[in-house]
Amino acid sequence: MTFSREVKEELGKNIPKARHCRIAELSVILYHFGKLLPNQDGNHLVISCEQEMIARKCFTLIEKTFNISVGLQKIDRTYHLEIPDAKLSEEICSAVKMLDPSTGNWLDTGHISGVLLKTQCCRRAFLRSCFFCNGSLSDPAKGYHLEFVCASDSFARQIEEVLKDFDISAKIVTRKKYRVVYIKEGSAIVEFLNVCEAHVSMMNLENYRILHEIAGETNRRVNCETANLLKSVNAANAQVEDIQFIAETVGLDKLPDSLQEMAYVRLEHTDATLKELGEFLSPPVGKSGVNHRLRKIQEFAEKLRG
Question: What is the average per-residue pLDDT within 174-195?
């Protein structure tokens, strides 16, 4: 199961206790999957979707909010909920502000009525349902990316504004015929899951983030140590080459006594660090002193090469 699916499974089990929050969630589901169709008594509400978890949550929200039984059936790959009674259909559509009172037809404004999102808890329910219906979340082991695919610009702007109410920054881009609201920061996605009350998923994501940060820090340290080791090895090889060049051309006895001693110690201990080389000298010399002598040997070799 993908991480996105895990989040939706958790959100699917979250049924708000407050009626107004249930209506806020239901409004998003009906916005995406609902429609009014005519029958002999008038218009009746039909909700059709391919995802069972959405159909079942819609089923539960309608039953708990309006205290009515709803028929749920699967035809081919699509789940259908139908309210055959025209009066009940009108009541539900009116509650979610999707009924044109003048015509009795479906009212499509391209977004959810702001009347349903006045309280913070209802805005949480709205975001929860938006992710449930048209959101997705990448595998946190591969990166952080959460997005909502929206059919209209006004709906995308509405999601962006509600996210901003919770101090979550999002951006909008166009992808083919859709408007996509996306979040790419791990901390912002964690906060989004907290706002939606997906606390188990939030903790799982936090665990991923901690492990990722530890792995990243370990890699940085290993890379740094490897780079330093490589630098030291290259420097030691260059010093040995300089000393061997001097020995083969004019002889090491042409060097001052202190540099001669340094040269022999370096040839004897090719893998030693500057600190270790200093301890082999008599009397012992610090790292800066060793570095100074090796630099003098290098300059001597360069003059011979010139």
Answer: 94
∠ Cα 84 51 68 (to 5°): 30
pLDDT band at 177 (very low <50, low <70, confident <90, very high): very high
Residues 32 and 138 placed together within one structural domain of the fold: yes
- Whether 224 is covered by a domain: the verdict is no
> Which pLDDT does position 264 carry in this prediction?
87
Q: How far, in Å, CA of 113 to CA of 115, rounded?
A: 5
Residues 6+ apart with CB under 8 A from 198: 7, 10, 11, 14, 128
Q: Give this prediction's pTM.
A: 0.71
Beta bridge partners of 180: 149, 173
What is the secondary structure of 207-257 as a DSSP string?
Answer: HHHHHHHHHHHHHHHHHHHHHHHHHHHHHHHHHHHHHHHHHHHT-GGGS-H
Question: Under 8 Å CB-to-CB from 69, ≥6 apart: which residues?
Answer: 63
Strand locations in the chain (E):
34-39, 42-49, 71-75, 78-83, 135-137, 146-150, 171-175, 178-183
Same-domain status, 183 and 238: no
Asked if residue 144 and residue 71 are part of one domain, the reply reads yes
Please give the share of the chain, as a percent, with pLDDT higher than 90: 51
